[in-house]
């Protein structure tokens, strides 16, 4: 009996030590996320935690613990960050500063880039059915929500556009696949109930690699589309 009791004490002590170590690891993780100015990926977090720690398991536990609080642990663009609970966002709306209200043309263009990327300006115009001014793309480039990806292997080698991590972060998306699908867009009233036969909503890809029909950007390409505000004309 003495040996059994002794084993129980040893096992109990070990379990207590493991609980204390895990609690300390959670505290470290919580501190890192709280102090970060931007979302952190799991590799960055793992580098600051003891070796061998299951970072994903800790994040999942912390996410569960924060689920009912005023601040939630969320994953955006494959990274983790603490954010105000969505149902309490209204409390902070007066503190928010709106730098610029996007025009309808900019919103339509952003949606096309998000769903159809990589896409050229000509392709955007074909989908919208109207000419897209250079200023519209300039505004979206300056917000940091879209970027120049490459150049299409076609006559004139037009620039292709895609979205950025900042786009995912702003709209609270972990990946482009989280964008609303056909049924969700219908439910939100953004699409008519009666659509043409064969109508589909594109499934965008998060792959940042250039496609077979794209060439790399050339020196100076990153300066394209950035003109003084006075020269812009919205379409």
**Average pLDDT over all residues:** 80
Specify the overall morphology. globular
How many structural domains? 2
What's the CATH architecture name of the largest domain?
Orthogonal Bundle
What does this entry look like structurally?
This protein has 235 residues and is of the alpha+beta class. The chain has 2 domains: 2-95, Winged helix-like DNA-binding domain superfamily/Winged helix DNA-binding domain (Arc Repressor Mutant, subunit A, Orthogonal Bundle); 104-231, Winged helix-like DNA-binding domain superfamily/Winged helix DNA-binding domain (Arc Repressor Mutant, subunit A, Orthogonal Bundle), CATH 1.10.10.10. It contains 8 helices and 6 strands. A 4-stranded antiparallel beta sheet has the order 3-5-4-6. It has a two-stranded antiparallel sheet with strand order 1-2. A hairpin with a 6-residue loop joins strand 4 and strand 5 (159-163). Helix 4 packs across helix 6. It is globular.
């Amino acid at each position: 009996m003495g040996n059994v009791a002794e084993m129980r004490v040893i096992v109990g002590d070990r379990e207590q030590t493991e609980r204390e170590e895990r609690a300390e690891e959670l505290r470290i993780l919580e501190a890192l996320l709280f102090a970060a100015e931007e979302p952190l990926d799991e590799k960055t977090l793992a580098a600051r935690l003891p070796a061998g720690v299951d970072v994903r398991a800790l994040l999942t536990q912390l996410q569960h613990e924060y689920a009912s609080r005023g601040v939630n642990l969320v994953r955006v663009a494959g990274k983790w960050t603490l954010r105000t609970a969505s149902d309490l966002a209204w409390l902070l709306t007066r503190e928010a500063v709106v730098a610029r209200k996007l025009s309808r043309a900019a919103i339509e263009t952003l949606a096309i880039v998000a769903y159809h990327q990589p896409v050229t300006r000509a392709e955007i115009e074909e989908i919208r059915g109207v000419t897209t001014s250079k200023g519209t793309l300039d505004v979206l480039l300056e917000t940091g929500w879209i970027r120049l990806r490459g150049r299409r292997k076609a006559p004139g080698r037009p620039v292709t556009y895609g979205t950025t991590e900042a786009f995912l972060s702003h709209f609270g998306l972990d990946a482009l696949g989280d964008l609303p699908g056909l049924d969700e867009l219908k439910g939100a009233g953004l699409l008519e109930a009666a659509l043409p036969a064969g109508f589909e909503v594109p499934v965008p890809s998060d792959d940042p690699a250039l496609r077979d029909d794209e060439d790399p950007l050339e020196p100076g390409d990153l300066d394209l589309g950035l003109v003084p505000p006075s020269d812009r004309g919205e379409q």
